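Tutorial, part two.
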Amino acid sequence: MKRVLLAESADVMPFALESLRVKYNQFPMFGNNRGGKVIHLIPCMTLDSAMDAAHSNIDLVLCGLHFDESRMFDLLRFMKATPALRHIPFLCIKTTEGVLAPAIYESVKIAIHASGAEGFFDLCELIKKLGSEEALKRIGLYFDELLSPSNRLG
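Running the prediction step on this input gives:
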């Protein structure tokens, strides 16, 4: 079972969980649901709780853009500055409605990548553009890639 830390603000967490189809703190692996694999989700709503949870043998961090009053970059810096954690893939997500101006969106993507994160996606826009099933399928394939043993460096 893979362990995924979901760092998101309290007011957004219910939407993020619903969007990711989470029930009872676990959800089937996206994509083709290979053999019923399950991801154990560890929701964290504050920077301190996420930093603590990061040390609990996690395999991936999903961090919301507005996590804990916009402290996504603080968590990203912590993860990449901590030798025991820097190998853990870090994926930034925007889970709230509202469109970022193209220049701001590109600036955020550049800063995220420069800080060592594996990627950034806008969940709401992906769902609007592709539909829920296809968006979640594509995200799931990316999760599969990030969670594969060949991706783990640590």
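The first strand starts at residue 2 and ends at 7. In part three we will examine how such features are distributed along the chain.
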